[in-house]
Amino acid sequence: MRELHFKDNFWNTEIISTVGYDSIIQHLNDGKRTSTVITTYCSLTLLPLTLDVLTFGLSHLHLAQTMREEAKKLEDFREKQKEARKKVEQHMDALHKQKAAQYKKTADAKKTYEQKCRDKEEAEQNMNRNATTSSSKQQEKLYAKTQQAKQTAEEADRIYSHNVSLLGKLREEWLNEHVKACEFFEKQEVERISTLRNVVWTHLNHLSQQCVTSDELYEEVRKSLEQCNIQEDIEHFINLRRTGDKPPASVPYENFYNNQRSAPTRSLPTAGR
């Protein structure tokens, strides 16, 4: 059977008509459009190839969707851990501030206590030094000053001791909460590492499966390509859109006077497609 070619099947007997040429150009332009238009002009041997490529694309879309779902799960897990950790961190931050503030108060109370003790000792020494040389009135003043210094030192001692006690209680509370926080953070870290490990493992499994699927689909595409017959596709289009196999005849010269004697004048065809 003789092969069909464009040059033999897209003629028109009208010399000014371009319908055959236009049909070819339209077909070439259609090749750049949607797959629906393409399949109208493609031969049946190319239809399986189109479907195989579509299936391959869908498999990648499925993988992308699966990866998005895994990423969403990981993001939800991260947010859940973040919220839980935030509560513990806020509690520990408050304890750290209380502990630091109480430590400062205790240190200041200790300085005051030590200074008041020195003041008391100085007052006592001063009173003892002047016990034999001062008058009774002066001794009374020194005694009163010594007693005042003693009371002040005792009050400073009480305040210092109280702050040490408060600091000790805060320390015990902080130690207990610190242990709990460490255990909580360690548990979170175990969960985080385990989750990330599982996510990466699952992700690699998806990629491995996609490689297998891709290879199978590649093989189907190769099989479809083996069945592709270019000439059949060309002939399919020609049979579908052929405009004629005869070119227009040449336009003869017609002498006006000869035509006037023999027959009515024929006009040339008007321009148009």
Automatic annotation (TrEMBL):
<dbReference type="GO" id="GO:0030041">
    <property type="term" value="P:actin filament polymerization"/>
</dbReference>
<feature type="region of interest" description="Disordered">
    <location>
        <begin position="112"/>
        <end position="148"/>
    </location>
</feature>
<feature type="compositionally biased region" description="Basic and acidic residues">
    <location>
        <begin position="112"/>
        <end position="123"/>
    </location>
</feature>
<dbReference type="Pfam" id="PF22699">
    <property type="entry name" value="GMIP-like_FCH"/>
</dbReference>
<dbReference type="GO" id="GO:0005886">
    <property type="term" value="C:plasma membrane"/>
</dbReference>
<feature type="compositionally biased region" description="Polar residues">
    <location>
        <begin position="125"/>
        <end position="137"/>
    </location>
</feature>
<protein>
    <submittedName>
        <fullName>Proline-serine-threonine phosphatase interacting protein 2</fullName>
    </submittedName>
</protein>
<feature type="region of interest" description="Disordered">
    <location>
        <begin position="243"/>
        <end position="273"/>
    </location>
</feature>
<feature type="domain" description="F-BAR">
    <location>
        <begin position="54"/>
        <end position="233"/>
    </location>
</feature>
<dbReference type="GO" id="GO:0005884">
    <property type="term" value="C:actin filament"/>
</dbReference>
<dbReference type="InterPro" id="IPR027267">
    <property type="entry name" value="AH/BAR_dom_sf"/>
</dbReference>
<keyword id="KW-0175">Coiled coil</keyword>
<dbReference type="GO" id="GO:0051015">
    <property type="term" value="F:actin filament binding"/>
</dbReference>
<dbReference type="GO" id="GO:0005737">
    <property type="term" value="C:cytoplasm"/>
</dbReference>
<feature type="compositionally biased region" description="Polar residues">
    <location>
        <begin position="256"/>
        <end position="273"/>
    </location>
</feature>
<dbReference type="InterPro" id="IPR054713">
    <property type="entry name" value="GMIP/FCHO2-like_FCH"/>
</dbReference>
<dbReference type="InterPro" id="IPR031160">
    <property type="entry name" value="F_BAR_dom"/>
</dbReference>
